[in-house]
Design a protein that fits this description.
Layout: E1 2-5, E2 11-15, E3 18-22, E4 28-29, E5 49-51, H1 57-60, H2 63-70, E6 73-77, E7 81-84, E8 87-91, E9 100-103, E10 107-110, E11 115-118, E12 121-126, E13 133-137, E14 140-144, E15 158-163, E16 166-170, E17 189-193, H3 205-215, E18 219-223, E19 229-230, H4 240-249, E20 253-254, E21 261-264
Helix pairs in contact: 3-4
Length: about 260
Amino acid sequence: MNITFYGYNTFVVKSKDKKIVIDPGGGLYFFKGWLKSLIPLSEWDDITHIFVTHGDPDHYWYADRIAEKSSASIICNKTMIQEIDGKPLLLGPRNRGLAFTTEVDNLHTIAPFETIKVDDMDITGVKTAHGPLTIKLGPFSKTLKPGPKERIGWGSIGFEIRLDSKVIINLGDTLIHREEWKTINSPDILMTPIGGGKVHNTMDEDEALETVEMIKPKLVIPCHYNCSAFHKKNANPADEIYFYDEVRKMGVNCALLEVNESIEI
């Protein structure tokens, strides 16, 4: 199994006949290309499955376009879909607000704690919750709080993916869930955000360490930290070396992947 990290919470996992993508979003730093695909176009054609953790643009801006090019199926929370005029429509990746406009040919929906089987993969929904996000532009600021009328964090869900005898947990952007995650036990790989120290939209390093201690994975890959966003080069700073050292003290392997870096499992 080969795992490549593309920044934010974007991963490509290749294993035998499958090539899955988690959160095919767009980068938010306009000096480097406003919402440019995090996954190179050269990787799109043979993608087989697309997992979407929630409806923020840095997580699924290109989901429908990759699906159209590759014929990949999309797996997402049931709340990402609404039936309109008899058609199940995905929350439009590039629409403003809660506009369900996008037709998807091959779609699988899931809810937290539910398990579905897709092409020999057993997939279980993991309870997650996106935290509030404060956007500052000069002297002005606005705090977006996930809720029934807000798009931010819409459809939040994590995934437990059983693929070719390996178990992968991806938590997306989430705050810690101490009770709901007790049933997760020793996955092969845990992908967890650690960059919520200043912006509080996800777990910070210490909360992620608590999660590692509780879940007891074999390998941890931290994500969604030190990312650019809007006018900032680093909108959610984290001390990844501290996180790495503390994970290793638990006797758990940890991989700090640079953007475009891969690891063989």
